[in-house]
Amino acid sequence: MNRGDLSAVMEIEKKSFSNPWHLSSFEGEIANDGISFPFVIVHPETRKVMGYIIFWQIGEEIQISNFAVHPDQRRKGMGSSVLGRMLGIMKQRGARIVTLEVRESNNSARALYRRFGFEEAGTRKDYYSRPQEDAVVMLKRMK
Ligand SMILES: CC(C)(COP(=O)(O)OP(=O)(O)OC[C@H]1O[C@@H](n2cnc3c(N)ncnc32)[C@H](O)[C@@H]1OP(=O)(O)O)[C@@H](O)C(=O)NCCC(=O)NCCS
Fold first, then answer.
1. Average pLDDT, the chain
2. Which protein residue has the closest C-alpha to ligand 1 atom 27?
3. Across 103-126, average pLDDT
4. Which domains does the chain possess?
5. 131 in helix, strand or coil?
6. Which of 99, 100, 121, 132 is deepest in the core (most CB within 10 A)?
7. Cβ distance 64 to 55 under 8 Å?
8. Which residue is closest in CA terms to ligand 1's atom 33?
9. Cβ-contact 71, 89 below 8 angstroms
10. For the CA of 100, the nearest atom of ligand 1
11. 3-state DSSP call for residue 49?
């Protein structure tokens, strides 16, 4: 992900989340070299941004901090393909544990993560706002 991607990224972000990140958050991720790894998913022919995934690495721990696919492109296997490839990259980078938070009501994302071996490790009460909701903490131990 670079600055030139951000208008497309913001469009997807606003379509994907009820309480979207601000532009400045994505700018911060791009600037946070060495800790944040922001990637865009780009159409192979049109080069259009179709989604993105951001993870943070601190030692052997990785946190997936943002992940979305454009609503028009969902349920075609793109999210699974990207998550699978990213987990491979994380493993190569020495990750032992991958965690993320997801809204309790986000059944599609929870199903996707479970298929990739994430377990539900706990909840964070009222973690999200607009609307207020608990987060489910999901955790995967790399084998
Ligand atoms: C989560 C997300 C990135 C998945 O991307 P995607 O490209 O649609 O994912 P896939 O097509 O690979 O679907 C993978 C699996 O997820 C589950 N899934 C995806 N959408 C679903 C839905 N609407 N209902 C139920 N399960 C769903 C299914 O298990 C699906 O497999 P299947 O299609 O074989 O049944 C996408 O739905 C998205 O952007 N959601 C909004 C943002 C978001 O919630 N991000 C995650 C925050 S933690």
1. 96
2. 108
3. 97
4. 3-141 (3.40.630.30)
5. coil
6. 100
7. yes
8. 75
9. no
10. 48
11. strand
